[in-house]
Amino acid sequence: MRFRIYRYNPETDTKPYMQDYELAEIQPDMMLLDALEEIRAQDESLAFRRSCGEGVCGSDGMNINGRNGLACITPLASLKEPVALRPLPGRPVIRDLVVDLSQFYQQYRAVKPWLIREDPLPEVEFLQSPEERKQLDGLYECILCACCSTACPSWWWNPEKFRGPAALLWVNRFVADNRDQATEERLSELDDAYKLFRCHTIMNCADVCPKNLNPAEAISRLKHRMMKDSI
Amino acid sequence: MNLPRRRFDTLVIGAGGGGLRAALQLAEAEANVAVVSKVFPIRSHTVAAQGGMNAALANVSPDSWHWHMYDTVKGSDYLGDQDAIEYMCRAAAHLVIDLEHAGVPFSRLENGKIYQRAFGGQSQNFGGEQAARTCAAADRTGHAILHSLYQQNIKSKTHFFDEFFALDLIKDAEGYILGAVVLEIETGQPWIIEAKCTLLATGGAGRLFRTNTNARINTGDGMAMALRAGIPLQDMEFVQFHPTGIAGKGMLITEGVRGEGGYLVNCEGERFMERYAPHVKDLASRDVVSRAIYTEVKEGRGCGPDGDYVLLKLEHLGANIIKERLPGIRQTVLTFLHFDPIEQPIPVYPTCHYVMGGIPTNRFGQVVAPYNEGAEEAIPGLYAVGECACVSVHGANRLGGNSLLDIVVFGRAAGNHIIEHLEAHRYHRALASESVEQALERLARWERPGDGESVEELRADLQKFMEQNCGVFRNEAVLEEAVHKVTEIEERLQYVRLKDQSKIFNTARLDALELENLVGLAQAVVRCALARQESRGAHYRVDYPERDDIRWLKHSLYFQGQGHVEYKPVRLKPLTVDTFPPKERVY
Ligand SMILES: Cc1cc2nc3c(=O)[nH]c(=O)nc-3n(C[C@H](O)[C@H](O)[C@H](O)COP(=O)(O)OP(=O)(O)OC[C@H]3O[C@@H](n4cnc5c(N)ncnc54)[C@H](O)[C@@H]3O)c2cc1C
Ligand code: SF4
Ligand code: SF4
């Protein structure tokens, strides 16, 4: 199987280039990460992040044949040759397939992604019915892989001002939680021309999310909520 | 020595559940704390924990911490220290509530309380009916807990060094630990981080074995760092094999599946666990189920074309339960096996999962070792928690759901003890430059030019030998061979060379450093396993099939260098209740 991989090592390369690799032996059930590990056994200078290998840690997000995804849960059989691998788009490249995600994490931190309570804590757990808990499904599973935000044209243009789909999904995760008491604060914090309203519903985020989450829908729910509150 | 230098009150190495829970305790007390992690914190392996965390909340069945304690002692095959176990089981409910308040989205019961499921080895009333003690957020409990702990830490302004690789501890002539030398992965720059207290929370070492449920980063770095600092490792022969890894691949299928009513069958369609554990069947303790599966396959009752696995049936649970309570494993099976477990049983086989041994500590998280006077002297300035540590609550076999509990209970306890320690030790000690030089030499060793074997080849061999020679069933001959082979690998390691000598994000260099750590640990595992002539918990010796309390009710301590094993007594006396005296373990 043939691969074309984005290479760039700032110590030695003046500019990035694509390098071809070939793997002779491909098992039918191999994932892209397995192939990358084999390529790295041939050429140890190829850098990429990876950890769990089963789609739960979010390390190995990359651009695979033009689409963002996690290498460890992308079956080789689903890919057209040559498989073109690039770093997640729109972020500074540290080396090869490794990008600098500090801005992505900053946007996440900026939305205060933690449960906020004003009232004193009970001695036992907060009560939450199964229906109330269900409101969090589709939101709390986000692994912060950055596939969505780095596929979002609005975030490419305004990464420092637009929060981007992942951070906004997290806002919704807390807004949807009946234990959280900062909904007002969370919504008013987003009330400017950029943080939330730069989303033009292009839907790339929902299209690429490897956990099948739908940040676009979370964003539109936030927008609705805000409209309703402002009437 | 012109390295960038930073100073903190406390340095936490590792940002999994253990490290983050400790850091949170410290940050909330406004102690100045830094967390170093070789991956961005939420990529730590705690994120992968599925089934849940134990606590006697009694939300589903009657329960008490004392019953939980009994199950844990029995599960540990009586090798667990009973004071630490009592402490953990008593603290459990408080810590689950704490996590819930921190935002963990636990699954819920109709009455709004936290949902609890049944797990293996849990009983009511000291060995009676099955208990439901495991608190779960669907089958993504670790993800939910790790994210919430990280979020609380950013709220409390913990200082993070993300993607920094800890090389070695800094230690002075009097044995004080003064921080660590760490490598900034992005730039390749080594740093000195000085601290009055250092906490190791670097997780497990499942990557010792070819087939395992662990992340690629679980290479036992903290344990190996301790060994190199002259600290022994405790009970390393006890490696847990999880009964239900996906056959041939290793991804975990949580015990929660059996807790929800799933069961195992062999090629004859027989529910074979009834023969091995007539009372609790598929919910027997993990070592028991793993041996049963292994035996079925060995005796020719395995499934599939090669008869090399058994089947885990869950179709009868119905689509709703599977979608609601086990969505993560359904996704894993769809992704890696291309079928829906709602319709078909899952091929499973025992897989390396958890390291029960590790850096010896007391229940305050202080690292303890025979040093000058006693057998359990605290190493000044050093703490350890989580899978890299051995308090020892898991003894010879860990019950499912007790490890997430272990990391938050002892993470918090260590945090509290460190706060006290800092009050008594207000100043940093003078830096020990020889110790820093040693760490840098270790790094420089990988800059040697020339041709040699690759890291990849050597690691593959190591993992293969460990699997073949130190697996579920062991005996003297194969273990002797294992010691021999691991020693050979250690020799070969000197001739491994890196072709890539660049500085920036050099993953090959990290692989090499990790391999070095794994080799050190493999020595500990095989030497302790060869020495222990009995069968206890996860350590099963075909040549010594019985547990032997007279000779072996004691902890192993492996020291690097001399390669020898010493022993120390098990703490059989709990804090306030009566001892659970060893008796035969039947399920
Ligand atoms: C698939 C799976 C499922 C599990 N399910 C359950 C369950 O349902 N219930 C349960 O109780 N237990 C479960 N366990 C066990 C439990 O999850 C782990 O034992 C526990 O999470 C370990 O936590 P930790 O904080 O010790 O380490 P980890 O979460 O592994 O974190 C280790 C940290 O150390 C850092 N680190 C390591 N080496 C270095 C270095 N050299 N330099 C810098 N940083 C370093 C890493 O970056 C990471 O941040 C499961 C384990 C696995 C593998
Ligand atoms: S829907 Fe909004 S957030 Fe998602 S990709 Fe499009 S513009 Fe970005
Ligand atoms: S929403 Fe999906 S794509 Fe975006 S960061 Fe979370 S898991 Fe990744």
TrEMBL record, chain A:
Entries under InterPro entries matching the protein: 2Fe-2S_ferredoxin-like_sf, 2Fe-2S_ferredoxin-type, 4Fe4S_Fe-S-bd, 4Fe4S_Fe_S_CS, Beta-grasp_dom_sf, Helical_ferredxn, SDH/FRD_Iron-Sulfur, Succ_DH/fum_Rdtase_Fe-S
Catalytic activity reported: a quinone + succinate = fumarate + a quinol
Domain 4Fe-4S ferredoxin-type, first and last residues per copy: 132-162
EC supergroup of this enzyme: oxidoreductase
GO terms, molecular function: 2 iron, 2 sulfur cluster binding; 3 iron, 4 sulfur cluster binding; 4 iron, 4 sulfur cluster binding; electron transfer activity; metal ion binding; succinate dehydrogenase (quinone) activity
EC number: 1.3.5.1
Gene3D superfamilies given in the database record: 3.10.20.30, Alpha-helical ferredoxin
GO biological process: respiratory electron transport chain; tricarboxylic acid cycle
Keyword Cytoplasm: no
Cofactor: [3Fe-4S] cluster; [4Fe-4S] cluster; [2Fe-2S] cluster
Key words of the record: 2Fe-2S, 3Fe-4S, 4Fe-4S, Electron transport, Iron, Iron-sulfur, Metal-binding, Oxidoreductase, Transport, Tricarboxylic acid cycle
Family: Belongs to the succinate dehydrogenase/fumarate reductase iron-sulfur protein family.
Record-given protein name: Succinate dehydrogenase iron-sulfur subunit
Organism of this sequence: Nitrosococcus oceani C-27
Automatic annotation (TrEMBL), chain B:
Pathway membership: Carbohydrate metabolism; tricarboxylic acid cycle; fumarate from succinate (bacterial route): step 1/1
Annotated GO biological process: anaerobic respiration; electron transport chain; tricarboxylic acid cycle
Every Fumarate reductase/succinate dehydrogenase flavoprotein-like C-terminal domain range: 459-587
Annotated keywords: Cell inner membrane, Cell membrane, Electron transport, FAD, Flavoprotein, Membrane, Oxidoreductase, Transport, Tricarboxylic acid cycle
EC number: 1.3.5.1
Superkingdom to which the source organism belongs: Bacteria
Cofactor: FAD
Catalytic site: 286
Positions of substrate binding: 242, 254, 353, 398
Sequence ranges assigned to domain FAD-dependent oxidoreductase 2 FAD-binding in this UniProt record: 9-404
Reactions catalysed according to its record: a quinone + succinate = fumarate + a quinol
Cofactor details (free text): Flavinylated by SdhE, about 5% flavinylation occurs in the absence of SdhE.
Subcellular compartments: Cell inner membrane
Residues that bind FAD: 14-19, 37-52, 221, 387, 403-404
EC class (word): oxidoreductase
Assigned protein family: Belongs to the FAD-dependent oxidoreductase 2 family. FRD/SDH subfamily.
Record-given protein name: Succinate dehydrogenase flavoprotein subunit
Originating species: Nitrosococcus oceani C-27
